[in-house]
Amino acid sequence: MTLDQPFWLLLLLFIPLLIRRYRMTARRQQLVLYMPDSMVLQGARTWRTVVRRWLPPLRWLALGLLTLAMARPQRQWEETKIQADAIDIVLALDISPSMLSRDFEPDRLEVAKRVAINFVKNRPHDRLGLVAFSAEAFTQCPLTTDLGVVQRSIRDLKVGRLEDGTAVGMGLATAINRLKDSPSVSKVIILLTDGENNAGYISPLQAAEIAQTLGMRVYTVGVGTNGIVMSPARRLPDGTYDYAPRHMEFDTELLQEIASMTRGRFYRAWSEEELAGIYQEIDQLEKTKIDVTTIRRTTEYFHWFLGVAVVFLLLEALLRWVLLRAVTP
User: Fold this and answer.
1) Whole-angstrom Cα distance, residue 140 to residue 142?
2) Which of 57, 58, 226, 298 is deepest in the core (most CB within 10 A)?
3) Domain residue spans in the chain?
4) Sorting pLDDT into bands at 50, 70 and 90, what band is 291?
């Protein structure tokens, strides 16, 4: 609630002066002969004597409300209309056992999930989806504007839900399948993996050709360090993994070729900070074009104060000149 012309409130300072003047002149008021009332003559208190005391306060309240009405109390509403050229983005994340390698804290997958969730938070006007792949691939979350659902789907990703292996082509093909019927002009896939393609019946380059034909852009991200890394060696009966030092190598040529074929980019992340920077760069490259129109509406409330003030003035006049009529010389 705001006041459009608050300077009128200065008039409220005169009301105490009027009240003081009224009280001083009331003591020197002219002789008034009120209509006889038997209860008054007996010295009893009647409703007339009680109501008469409220006549001046009614007038002061009316003056105060009239002053507030002149200050024009109002409330402003803003309505924002957004017209966005939305981008459809599918995240394809590797959940093979090697993503549990501990060269990241606590492991590669948890870091990839944290960074992906932050990326999703910054895309409020786009549709996003999630594909997970290992030796196979599946859609964890279809394209949606409900970013909360996408974030929960990312948090729920776990290693061991699929057969062991890394089917980059299958992950890419599944992401393409999610986007192929999209009406969006911009279709983007962010593919993150830490290993070489060693499974699946669709090769990564075949999937990249399909993406190229359909006008999809693929950003490939290779995550992890080279050298000796504590990595899962075998799966235990309870579903957990036994870790052992393993020599890890990463072939970047395949991911570079996929990105080149689809007019995307290849990135290499050696740490969580670098991975976060990669997602920030992709976020800037694939920025949604937004047209924002703000409509302001104003609701006036002065008429409520004016109406109550008029009621008080009419009530005061009715009481003074009708119910409490007096005869003066």
Assistant:
1) 7
2) 58
3) 2-77+298-327, 87-287
4) low
